[in-house]
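Hi again,

Forgot to attach this to my earlier email, sorry! This is the prediction with guanosine-5'-diphosphate bound. I've pasted everything inline since the attachment limit keeps bouncing my files.
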Amino acid sequence: MKVALIGMMQSGKSTLLSAVCGKAVQSDMIHIHEEVVAVPDERLDWLTGLYKPKKTVHGTVDCLDLPGLSFADQSGRSAARRLFGSIRTVDMLVLVVGAYLEGVDAASELNDLRTEFLLADLELVTTRIERLEKQVHKPTKTQAQEKAELALQLKLQDALEAEKPISSVIQSDQELDLIKSLGFLTLKPMMVVVNVSEDNAGAKVDLGDAVSEGVEVVTLCASLESELAQLDEESRVEFMADLGLSEIAAAKFIQSCYTTCGLISFLTVGPDEVRAWPIPAGMTALDAAGKIHSDIKRGFIRAETIGYKDMVELGSEKECKAKGKTRLEGKTYVIADGDIINFRFNV
Ligand SMILES: Nc1nc2c(ncn2[C@@H]2O[C@H](COP(=O)(O)OP(=O)(O)O)[C@@H](O)[C@H]2O)c(=O)[nH]1
Ligand SMILES: [Mg+2]
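Structure tokens for the complex follow:
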């Protein structure tokens, strides 16, 4: 899963990324910097304590740290447009607002960003319409599909001109299939990070209607979070208590990226490895087996499944089995987040 961190210069994107990966992030003003970040998971920590495995493998999120944007002049705008072009394949956008900076109005900055996304998508739609209008008259095998796409693109153009995101007009999977590969920015899931100053860590910032319903807003102080990430467990707990912070916001942020993209985890355990496997919510046991290995899918017999809560309550696989908490699930079972699974297979 890939996410793009987007925001104005100095908004704190690289600092936030340093906080989530626990090390300084090298970034510059021109290139996109990529960092694979492990998703913190208490369940893995607990299971690692239980199994003492040789290794523990976390789910990951691939973060793209974009150079800071500037819309002050034409060259800033074109640079932004080029950057937008290179993030069309990401799964979600994280908008970072530097609310800690003097003179930054978080709501209006978000509105500016949203306008730029709308304009970038409008440009893409327009180019696409021009292409399709020339194409549809030719009697080719794909003519029907091109006609359908053209009608849809015209609808998208209307929406964008009325400042509505593409996500608000797509109504069916068929429509989605027609335009999916174009990577429209206003079709992607979105999250907002409000980077507040040290004194305001934990405070809420009023964003008015700059954030659409359903978009998650995480408020944190990126520089503080990156300091927290440098500390050992004990000093961190102490430091957080001093500041009155109850959770590591950077950890919550990266977990939210995971869930906003519709991912859940199933877990595998053993003396060699305790591991979280990212899958889309709604996946069946058979497809989940295929995530581990195609042989396990091919020779699937059943999924021996223990809910994470049951495991914690009863303390061991053995106890779970004895108390009837080990379920034998078939191919069509829909995996729940935190299921601990042992696939039985035969090839
Ligand atoms: N005081 C304060 N400084 C911050 C905060 N977040 C970032 N900075 C500083 O602002 C500067 C720019 O941050 P950076 O993460 O590089 O911004 P980017 O351009 O969005 O990547 C750095 O010197 C950071 O240390 C914050 O929450 N509080
Ligand atoms: Mg940066």
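The CA atoms of residues 11 and 98 lie 4 Å apart. The mean pLDDT is 93.

That should be everything now.

G.
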